[in-house]
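Need C-alpha cells for this chain, all 226 residues.
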Amino acid sequence: MRSLPLPVTLAARLLPVTVLACVGWAWSTGPMSDSADKAHETPAPQASASDGPSESVAAKTYAEPPSPCGTVAGKTVTSLVPGAKTAGKELAATDESVRRGCSWSALKGYDYRWLDVSFEVKESDALAKQAYTAGSDADSTAQDIGDQARLATNLATKDKQQTREAVVTVRVANTLVTVTYNGSDFESKGAPSADTVSKGALQAARDAVAALDATADKGKGSADGA
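Here are the C-alpha cells for all 226 residues:
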C-alpha cells in the first residue's frame, strides 16, 4: 500500500513509528515539554503566613498520571480499533510523574483506526483550568465527563483520501485528559462519520476518567489506612 500524505496532525497517526518520534520530541523539547509548561504557566501565588489555604497551594488531587495503557477498557479498544492489541503501546515521555500516554492502532481490511489517550498532571486545579481554557475551540461541550470537557472534530482530505478525527479534552481537578480518535477507509477514500468518531472518543474519555478517579480513590484509601 502506498504512503498517503495527510495533514501533519493526522498523518502522524497513520504512521505509528513517526508518531512515537513526534510525541517523544513534543514531550521532551516541544510544546508539551516541562520547559514549555513553565514558560507558559503563570506562577502560582504564594500564601502569606496570615493567609488561609488557597486553591493554588492546596494538596494535589492527583499526584501523578495513572498507567495509561490500562485506562481504556479492553472492550472499548476492541470496538473502536478492531484488530489492535488491547495492551496498547505507551508513548515515550521525559517525566512520567507529569505526563503519560498510550496509543492503539490497526488496519483491518482497508479500514484504519487510531486511538490515543494522554494524562498531564498540573501543580494545582488553577493551573489545570488555565491550561484547559487556553486550549483550542470546540464543537461542543460534554457535561457528564470530569469537571470540564469539550469535543472537537475535523475532516481532512489529502490526495482525495479523507481522514476524520475527534479530540476530547477533559479537566479533572488538576489533571488534563486528552483522547484522540480517528480513521480512514483506504478503499472508498472516505472516512468514518462525525457521529462515529465523536461517540468513540467520548467513550474512551469516560473510561480514562473513570480509571483516573480509581487511582485517586486507591491513594486516599492507602492514606486513610496509614
